[in-house]
Each structure stands twice: as structure tokens, then as C-alpha cells.
Amino acid sequence: MERNLYEQLVKNYNNELTHSGVNGKRLAARLDELSRIGLMESGGVTRPGYSEEEKRAKELVISWMESAGLSVTADGAGNVFGRLEGKKDTPAIVSGSHVDSVPNGGHFDGPLGVLSALEVVEAWKETGYIPEKPYEVAIFSDEEGSRFKSSLTGSRAFMGQMKPEEMDSLRDENGKSFREVLAEYGSSAEECLRAGNNRREMDTFVEVHIEQGKVLEREGQPVGVVRGIAGPASLEVTFTGEAGHAGNTPMAGRKDPLVAASLFVGAIEKFPKQVSDTAVATVGKLNVHPNGFNVIAQEVKLIVDIRDIFEETRDQLLEIISEEARKIAEERNIEVQMNLNAKIKPLPIKETLQAKIAGSLSKFDIKPVYIPSGAGHDTMIVGTEIPAAMLFVRSKDGISHNPREWTSLNDCVYGVHVLKDFVEGLMED
């Protein structure tokens, strides 16, 4: 990707999409400016959570918030909120995302959601629209979690889900503790924990995000409706057999855990569709011990990532996969141990909110496409207690977390128009 993101974005832009106060070139210019903070030689960007780069990105957006007439505040977790007062003193409609990135990531994952929410304010300013309810643009800290291998930090702190013991255990690759990093950032662990106590009232939260998949591309639609956000369960499975010489041990009677693991991995593929059309299961990590080319393995350890947007079917799939591991171990006369490392609640999006988004899509002649989100987002944390919705914007080739991550400006602007119409509808409820 060329370094001038603006020129790339506007090259094939349909200027007719700039209307109703929404300005595509303004959005492109801001995506370009943000892309220069933490820019790598590869064309990607590196802005870890609670880094100087993330802080500079927030400060840049804050300057745009203030010029748009928003009053800006931040909490002890570094979360930023730009507020526009409404005609009524009610809980606010909130939209936003994050500006941190994975190492050598793309320019749309996170920033598009923040800037789309801000572009709604700019559009209202140009057209003289005054919202009935307060509206806030949110930037949550450290969504990606690349620095501490613990994601969604800002939104979890905001929702009161961070614990002191977690803060004590987190360290970055340089050995700095989370507490030390917060102090350098200009906050403290105590202030971060207080973010949950000082939480602002929200009517509804809505996040615009790139799809990170190929459904919209396949359907030929620029924007889609998120059905729900999958909650992952991480099942660690260890098959233990008997090591032996590959040449001197007869095939009959072998207790080979790698064969058992292979049968297990091969079987997993057929199970998700038995419980749900949105369930998935993946083995992406497998360790063999002693891992010698001429040695029958002693032990194989693997991790199964199991996800669905519905907790009941996710847990049903977890049990089916666990039972398969036990069955194979018994048939192969080897031992198996299982440990559930993590189990996070999925977030189904309320059908009433999905219907409202679909109504907004239809106003722009966009066919509603309903998509489950397999990845985690700040929405799944905020949505544990607050009504929450998500819009997906089409991703080229489904690429994400990569310098080649790309969403056309036309699709980005369609996303803003849909968000604006959806939020204006919520204002009237």
C-alpha cells in the first residue's frame, strides 16, 4: 500500500456519496493522518495499547472532536469521550471503537469506527441538526491487547471488569508491569479501576467496524448487520501415550498420541454444523513431545478454539468435542486430559436493533446481510449491560491485521450514512 492513504482512498471515490453533511474526503483525510502515527516501512501501522503512538492518535482525534464542538473527557483507563448535548437530559447514544493496533496492522480496524462516529457529528454540524438525546464519540484503550496479551482493556475497565490481581500479573515484552505502563501513560492502576465506578450512562452503544471476513464481498453489499459476537471457549487437550523407537517398535500395540490427536483434529471439522450455522471450531496450535523425527511421541498437547454467538450451542459444541477426545483416547488405549483455559460469554445482538439497522440499510438500497462476528470487539464488553449493536463494512479479500487491510472509501462512507440514520432513529425512540 502506498504511504499516501488519502490519494489511494479518493482515487475511485464516488463524490455523489458526499451529501447530507457527510463528507467522504474529510473522512479520507483523517484516516490518512491517523495512518501516519506508528507507520512502518511495510506500509502497516504499529500502535500498541498505552503506547506513545496510541496516545498521539487519541490526541489527534481529540483535536477534531473539539473543533466539531464536542466536550472531551477521559477516564483513568485512557478511554476518551467526546460529548454533544441533546435537547433532553437523558442517557447518551454512544458510538466509537479504538485507535490502537496489532504490530504491523492495517489502517481501518478501529479507526474507521471512531472516525465514522465523529463524521456523524460533523454532518449534524453542517446541516444544523440538534439531537434529541446526548451523543458521544468513544475511543476505548488497548482493544487489540497486543502489548499485554490481554485484549479489550479499556472497555473492560469502563465496565468495571478489570481486577487488581490482573493488573499485577500483566507484563509487556520488555518486562514492564501494567501498573508501570499506566503510570508512564499519565494514569495509575487505582484510577483505571475507578473508571468502572465513574461510568457514564448510555442509552445504546453502536460500533462500526470492518468485517474482517468475506461475506459482504461475496454478497456484493457495502454494509451489513452483525447478528452477534462470538464468545470463545479455549479447550486445552493433552493426549499421553508411550514414547518409543520409530524403527524397533512394532505397529501393533503402539500407544501413539499423535495418531490420536490427528484423528481428533480431523473429526472436529464436522461438529460445528451439528449445533449451529454460526458455530466454529479450530485447532491452530499443537505441540508434540519429544518431537523427534524417529521417535514415537510421548505427549501431544493442542488447543481447540470453540466459538458461537449463542452460549447454549457454543457449550453444546464444547461438550461434543470433549466427548470425542475421550472416545478416541479410550479406543487408542492412551490417556487424555482436558482443561478449559477460557470461556467468555457471547453477545447476541437484540433483534430489535438488528431490524433498525436493516431499516437504515434499505434507505440506501443496501440489501440487509446478517453476519456473525467471530472476533471480539469492545461492543461485546459494553453490551454485557448496555443495549449494543454493530455494523460491518466490507473488507477487501477479508484481510485484517495486515498492511493489506483495505476498505474502499465508498464503502466507508456508506457505513457513515447508515450509522447516521440508525442513530437518528434511536434519538426518536
UniProtKB/TrEMBL annotation:
Keyword DNA repair annotated: no
Binding residues annotated for Zn(2+) 2, in chain numbering: 109, 144, 401
Pfam families: M20_dimer, Peptidase_M20
Regions annotated as coiled coil: none
Alphabetical keyword list: Hydrolase, Metal-binding, Zinc
Signal peptide annotation: none
Note on how the cofactor is bound: Binds 2 Zn(2+) ions per subunit.
Domain named Peptidase M20 dimerisation: residues: 230-331
Any GO molecular function: hydrolase activity, acting on carbon-nitrogen (but not peptide) bonds, in linear amidines
Residues the record lists as binding Zn(2+) 1: 98, 109, 209
Cofactor: Zn(2+)
Record-linked InterPro entries: Amidase_Cbmase, Bact_exopeptidase_dim_dom, Peptidase_M20, Peptidase_M20_dimer
Entry similarity comment: Belongs to the peptidase M20 family.
Protein's name in the database: Allantoate deiminase
